[in-house]
Amino acid sequence: MNDHRTATLRLPASDRRLQLVETALDCFSRKGFGGTTTKEIAAAAGVTEAIIFRHFPTKQDLYNAVLDQHHDSGRIADCIEQWKNCMDRNDDEGLVRSMIETIFDAHRHDLRGHRVLLFAALEGHESALEYHRQFSFPISELLCQYVARRQSEGALLGSNPEAVIAAVYGMAEQYATMTRMFGFRSTTTDRQMADSFVDIVMHGIRANQPTERA
User: What does pTM read for this prediction?
Assistant: First the structure.
């Protein structure tokens, strides 16, 4: 038997599980859930399908593990903690900047995870989308509550809090998707773009004009 295959088969259970999840993430990110077979994942991992089913009874279970890895990233927990610190200090600009930089960073380091979710939407994989919504909703709720509080204190204008958060997220997510996923080139660095987005959110784009009488 090939030495590489022998070494692969002897991996500890925890390492084997991690290897399978990583390999599945790569496969699902390129072909989606429906377009990927466990046979393909097994071949990419250098194991048999029986090894996969020893750790994950079904392809859906393996897919769920991929989603868990994407959402349980320690990086996400660190970012949320940073956002909460900004909220405690009433640092509106710092929060907006951190949100934008978090999205840029996520696309740099976890583009495969974003592709998996995009495939889930295209395939109508409702369980995956519901999983993502359940994870994301409490974060969105936290951000909206902060914006509403700051509006009540007169620090922010009274736009719909959900619209404010959607605007911040939407600008950063769209730019990151266009440059990282679709390959659009930009001469602007991520730091420069983050500066510009923060300025747009905090100050708008319209030049100050004398107020006209009706």
Answer: 0.84
